[in-house]
Amino acid sequence: MKDTRNQILDAAKRVITQKGFHGSTMEDIAKAAGVAKGTSYLYFKSKIELYLAVMEREFDYITSCFEEIIKSRIPVLKKIEGIISFFIEYMKENRDFVFSLMYEPPLIKMNKDVIHKRYRNKIDNIRHKFIEVLEEGIRRGDIIKEDPEVLADVIFGAIVRPVIQFVIRKKTGDIDSLKFKIMNILTKGIVRKGG
């Protein structure tokens, strides 16, 4: 039963990536999953419900990967680098999927509402864990003594915005060089020595 559900979710992700949310139908998704259309309705009452389930599964995957990095016994800077690497890899592998879900105009408002209503606790939990990592780094003297909440927001902003922009613009350059640039700015700052 769980395998069939995941089959449908996998198919939905593929079909939505290819056709967009509005261009895909439950019939397309069922066909891609290798199940009858009626079977897909046993698991999901509507395309919106299926879409939300795909989003939730992706969000849970990202959350669990972030938590794994944050809980690992490596230095703070390596954790930050790990988060950047994971995020870049995820975006690279799922570029068209993310683009089709996040930037299909009719879905933008719904995405914002869904994220705030359904995922706010998950987002807050990850942020809290990351703040704890930064507090540990401050105590050990690995990073600057600054408000860890502000640091967390600055670091996440420095990671998310450039990578998302890369996806939106569908740039063809080397996304891996983005990791180096972000880490370089985070670790060295923006002020020139002796400047």
UniProtKB/TrEMBL annotation:
Would you tell me the protein name for this molecule? TetR/AcrR family transcriptional regulator
The family database entries (InterPro entries) matched by this protein are listed as: Homeodomain-like_sf, HTH-type_Tx_Regulator, HTH_TetR, KstR2_TetR_C, Tet_transcr_reg_TetR-rel_C_sf
Q: Where is the HTH tetR-type domain?
A: 2-62
Any idea which GO molecular function terms this record carries? DNA binding
Gene3D superfamilies xrefs = Homeodomain-like, Tetracycline Repressor, domain 2
Q: What Pfam families does its record include?
A: TetR_C_24 (PF17932), TetR_N (PF00440)
Segments of the chain annotated as binding DNA: 25-44
Domain of life of the source: Bacteria
Instruction: Recite the UniProt keywords alphabetically.
Output: DNA-binding, Transcription, Transcription regulation
Q: Which SUPFAM superfamilies match?
A: Homeodomain-like, Tetracyclin repressor-like, C-terminal domain
Q: Does the keyword DNA-binding apply?
A: yes
